[in-house]
Amino acid sequence: MKVIKVGLLGMGTVGSGVFEVLKNNAAEISRRAGCTIQIGRVVVRDPEEVRTLVGPDIPLSSDPFDIVNDPAIDVLVEVMGGTTLARDVVLAAIAKGKQVVTANKALLAVHGNEIFARAREAGVMVAFEAAVAGGIPIVKALREGLSANRVQMVAGIINGTTNFILSEMRDKGISFDVALAEAQRLGYAEADPTFDIEGIDAAHKATLLASIAFGVPVQFDGAYIEGISKLAAEDFTYADQLGYRIKLLGIARRRAEGIELRVHPTLIPARRLLANVEGAMNAVWVKGDAVGETLYYGPGAGKLPTASAVVADLVDVARQIEVAPESRVPYLAFQQDQLQQVPVLPAAEMETAYYLRIPVRDEPGVLADITRIMADEGVSIDAMLQRQPSEGANTTDIILMTHRTVEKCIDIASRHIEALPSVTAAPVRLRVEALD
Amino acid sequence: MKVIKVGLLGMGTVGSGVFEVLKNNAAEISRRAGCTIQIGRVVVRDPEEVRTLVGPDIPLSSDPFDIVNDPAIDVLVEVMGGTTLARDVVLAAIAKGKQVVTANKALLAVHGNEIFARAREAGVMVAFEAAVAGGIPIVKALREGLSANRVQMVAGIINGTTNFILSEMRDKGISFDVALAEAQRLGYAEADPTFDIEGIDAAHKATLLASIAFGVPVQFDGAYIEGISKLAAEDFTYADQLGYRIKLLGIARRRAEGIELRVHPTLIPARRLLANVEGAMNAVWVKGDAVGETLYYGPGAGKLPTASAVVADLVDVARQIEVAPESRVPYLAFQQDQLQQVPVLPAAEMETAYYLRIPVRDEPGVLADITRIMADEGVSIDAMLQRQPSEGANTTDIILMTHRTVEKCIDIASRHIEALPSVTAAPVRLRVEALD
């Protein structure tokens, strides 16, 4: 039986998961793949830490280029993370004609165009199922399963940390800070949670999804990114009253003028499956012109779920290693010379519906002033909620939901509303997606 | 650019959808596939009916073997249905070295072992994404996306007709007969609905899912099949009160002794995503040892969704046509010589939890008698619900939910319960799956 030798770069959570899955399910994987996939070399910063786990038979060292320079290694599995050394090692491996499997979303979102171009010249694969939504085979679904479709929109809960925090805030009525502390205590959030809570990790993944869905180069720089740290407990209450849930979505949407690529807290109708994805789970909703809507749900992170995706890529690579490069599934789902240079639209041109929470003094005429401003900017109102002022207070909130409109109209309307004498602070703005 | 010529057998709903998708999305598909996929011949019973749609340039006739005998045709797309003529045509095409794409679940569930064996001898592909859950790329997810996993269980809502009927029964509190008539009026159910409502269609699909998930030959004959026609409105009420929904599931479960392959109405906890799949939509839940639980949701039927799956298969076939057969993804996910002869367990050995609705006279001691019988058979009770008799009546229902147990124990307990003097009719039995 053919043997494929893997060089494993990184033995943290994901790396040790890959090691474990390849070992535990070796027989099942061989029965499927028709070949044997073996770890042929392991590189970690501190080899002593993992020597017992790796065992005496597998070469173990600390220099990533040991994998690059080992002629016995067919495939580099990069699960080290980072975008500097990881880039150098991946490019060097490609230059040596090695196949690459990576779970590194940041690397591909930032350096993907360069990496895919070099890989194409070298005729090697770069597989990255594990880079988006962990164990969910969403990259395969978009690249292959939905290949008959002109994809119109992708919207995903693609960061488990923030979904956990949002679920806690809604279920327990707690503040963002308390929910974040809870997530950190349980290991769902890191000590420095910036990448997750400010939406950067989700934007890396949305960038890759957009490229695969639409056949465009990766354009992380164009993404609009807004995290969840400014959400208030009352927004969850109002959303519930309106029949919505708040989720951090990564959205890629195709429009005639270009693509929208955006990450932000989003109100979703509570009846939609995506609105009911709770805790650290991930889900990606895809709308295509032939298939209609489909949804893919599962664990977005974790040792074995992520390893599941890495090893599935290894099986694909093992099968395709002798196939002519032009017959393989292209890196970004579309043949590399067929990628279209479609721009990412600026935030002002984004088109969606809006939720506005407007803090006002409870005075006659304020609602009339607000609705007149909205009408003047061509924004049509879908629903309205006005809270009674609490006992003794004379301020309250007006909550408006609009129909779909262009962001710049909301920008202008918001400025005018904020300038009204009865309005006590800038309106809080959240976006709404019906997913229909 | 390489051209792949397709012989399209059948121009009903699915066939005309395939025609439409290949035409409308030709550019997008070529950008992905790196080749052109063309309809090279169409065969239908009555060519005159579709001549305008097909146009003057594509040969059109009524003899299926015209496709088999046309040396210009690379791939047979069989969307004609049936298991007799379809079998002959598919086997003849394979013998001529043509690739096959089919949406025909009945054909593969019944004749799959023969068809796959012949295809293997001839070195051709048989792709069937459209045969299970329409537009959802579940075959690809199981065969490739989850290839690192030892799959433990698959449970799917894989028949849209019955899911529509069950959604209507619950939402509107109507009887099965009324809901079926509504489904027929809306085109969700056929004039003779037997295949759908008695679970046979779902069992065909579950048979294929079991083979792909576990790497076993297709074993439709071993499937336990129970439809939805005997469900009563009160079962939906009781299920709701217990926090459950009733869905027709196709289930394939791996156990040490063999596999369970079964289709039956099933209570699912209302919080699970699968419990919230409504109307004619489909969804498949998969549990694997590495990935944990994943779920795939989308339209299970319809012209364009099914065509989406057929055309995705065509893209796969086009890419793989020059690849050595042993490097391709195997028909049933596992290499053909690695399929395991694992038996399907008989119904008496199935292991699940149960819902029992027991019609009783409202007399002292009846509950004690029932619980004693359950204890004697080793069945442990998880929850109980007793309805007050309606005004003037002296009969009522006792509803029991058990912990997981073996079906034969429930068989014996049910017989003993039915023999109790206070019990007025045979207990109604539904199965319960927690999906955890």
UniProtKB/TrEMBL annotation, chains A, B:
Record-listed E.C. numbers: 1.1.1.3
Domain ACT: 355-431
Record's protein name: Homoserine dehydrogenase
Keyword set includes Cell membrane: no
Cofactor entry: a metal cation
Amino-acid positions noted as binding NADP(+) in the UniProt annotation, renumbered to this chain: 9-16
Family membership: Belongs to the homoserine dehydrogenase family.
